[in-house]
Design goal:
The chain is globular and about 75 Å long. It is of the alpha/beta class. It has two domains: 246 residues, no CATH class; 257 residues, 4-Layer Sandwich (Nitrilase/N-carbamoyl-D-aminoacid amidohydrolase). The strands form two sheets. Strands 5-4-3-2-1-11 form a six-stranded mixed beta sheet. It has a five-stranded mixed beta sheet with strand order 6-7-8-9-10, covered by helices on one side. Helix 15 links the parallel strand 7 and strand 8.
């Protein structure tokens, strides 16, 4: 490791930039579905050493930008798959989605290393500064320009549930801070004195303590089930290229109805379909509602994604990406409109300046609904609906004034094919379940569908690109709110800012070596 870092230090120009891109791409292997956690040690240790060797703050920004460019390029390549469904119209946008989006998102990692270099450049202080700056900019990335907190570094722990339990206590940014700190501080193990090496291993000890606490939490985790509720998740795996063809729409609907009426033993009380599963305007099409009603259990509901619209002569005419619940008589018993829309997918921002069509079906931009919301549906506990990527936003999935007892995420990952995207999306859903202490039901057109208990355990699932149904009970929510939902992110943001200020003060007064790095030379 020492020789490798020394070799990196000698690189310059495009060789150094290429190495940073590859290091950022290597870190992606720690994300779902791979969870190759040891790669973080190499990636972040090298990032820290190259950051420490930066000549000025702008070269420090460049170190983070090139690392982030690789991280987002390899982590989000699958977004371009959506453009290949209609390559004649949207294929020319692929370079922008691959390189342009990665370049924009890399600004956040560049700002993180810019800030870290400004605060501290030596020893453990620099690792602390990098970790605090990284998660601070992750948090900001989830807010600005409507937010895009995809692939938060804490998601690497979804495959290690004892550690992932800490999401209920310190949230994704607290866990992310410890992750970056542990991975980057290990670079000091190969380069410093024995005393400093022990201090560099301290963050690993904190993660080990979290793992022990999480294991204890899981040991007492008994997921009771909601009485009188039996859910049927329907995953038809309809090709996105065929989904909206006018001559196939009714055939797709019949397939959903047939799958929903399958005899499998214990009958379901509620049937759930994916995002935009019904290719008709249910609120205006009585015949379509009556067809959907045939899939509803007696006295139960079909909960489905569908496009909802205002009256045709309304001014302005509006459409919503919605969830609608239809009973066995064809009546709509509740609905929810997606409130966090995907830029360019569901609406075009700055449309007067960017005369581009949106990628999803139809020429009218979707309108956002109010949210988050809790809705009450017959025969079910109060539910917090989430459509598609609304589930990726920490602390923004429930109505704080009217908390639900479970979360329901309808999505259509058919846009992205057999890629890492749906696995990353499903991991985000598991994180929200742990953070909120609520069960989460996820239904996708092409996978991954499943039921997740409040500890992030998958109790039933259908894999990616599978066609089928799964019947399962609905787990109960935790009896008390998690620490993270009570505290939120505010205290952690204040702690990171105070830490960065403290580090800057100590380093400026040449006190940090005595405070934290004595004996390290």
């Amino acid at each position: 490791m020492t020789r490798f870092i020394a070799w990196l230090d000698m690189l310059s120009g495009w060789k150094k930039r290429g190495a940073l891109v590859l290091l950022g791409g290597l870190a992606v292997l720690a994300l779902p579905p791979f969870h190759a956690l040891p790669v973080l040690i190499l990636s972040f240790s090298c990032l820290l050493r190259l950051l420490q060797g930066s000549a000025n703050r702008w070269s420090a920004f460049a170190v983070g930008w090139w690392f982030g460019f690789g991280f987002f390029l390899f982590g989000l390549y699958w977004i371009s798959n959506a453009l290949l469904l209609d390559p004649l119209r949207f294929g020319w946008l692929i370079p922008f989605s691959l390189f342009g989006l990665s370049g924009v998102l890399a600004i956040f990692t560049g700002l993180a290393t810019f800030l870290a270099w400004f605060v501290a450049r030596r020893r453990l202080a620099s690792a602390l500064a990098l970790a605090a700056s990284w998660v601070l900019l992750e948090w900001i990335r989830g807010l600005v320009f409507t937010g895009f907190p995809w692939n938060l570094i804490a998601s690497v722990w979804v495959g290690v549930l004892p550690v992932a339990q800490s999401l209920a206590w310190i949230g994704p940014f607290g866990l992310g801070f410890l992750t970056v700190l542990a991975a980057s501080a290990l670079s000091l193990v190969w380069t410093e004195t024995p005393n400093a090496r022990i201090k560099a291993l301290a963050p690993l000890g904190l993660l080990a303590l979290l793992a022990l606490g999480g294991a204890w939490r899981l040991q007492g985790a008994e997921a009771g089930m909601v009485e009188g509720v039996r859910l049927r998740l329907v995953q038809p795996n309809i090709s996105q290229a065929l989904k909206w063809k006018s001559d196939l729409r009714f055939q797709h609907l019949l397939r959903l109805i047939e799958m929903s009426r399958s005899e499998t033993g214990v009958p379901p009380t509620h049937v759930i379909w994916a995002e935009t599963a019904v290719p008709y305007l249910l609120d205006h099409d009585v015949q379509a509602r009556l067809a959907v009603a045939k899939a509803a259990p007696t006295g139960g509901l079909v909960i489905t994604g569908a496009v909802r619209s205002s009256l045709p002569d309304a001014q302005p005419y509006q459409v919503w990406n919605s969830l609608e619940a239809v009973d066995d008589a064809g009546r709509i018993r509740g609905y929810f409109d997606k409130f966090h829309l995907v830029p360019f997918g569901e609406y075009v921002p700055l449309k007067a300046l960017l005369p581009l069509p949106k990628i999803t079906q139809g020429g009218t931009d979707f309108s956002p609904g109010p949210g988050p919301r809790t809705i009450q549906l017959p025969g079910l506990p109060p539910v917090g609906p989430l459509i598609c990527y609304e589930v990726i936003f920490p602390q923004a999935v429930t109505d704080s004034k009217n908390r639900p007892e479970w979360l329901l995420n309808l999505t259509n990952d058919g846009w992205y094919g057999m890629s890492t995207g749906p696995y990353q999306h499903f991991a985000s859903a598991r994180m929200r379940a742990i953070e909120e202490g609520l069960p989460l039901v996820r239904v996708a057109n092409s996978g991954i569908s499943g039921i997740i208990d409040p500890w992030g355990r998958v109790t039933a699932s259908l894999g990616l690109s599978e066609s089928g149904i799964v019947d399962a009970d609905l787990p109960k929510a935790l009896t008390a709110r998690t620490i993270y939902t009570v505290l939120g992110e505010g205290p952690f943001v204040i702690i990171w800012l105070m830490l960065l200020t403290f580090l800057k003060f100590m380093v400026s007064h040449k006190m940090f070596s005595r405070f934290c790095c004595s004996g390290s030379g």
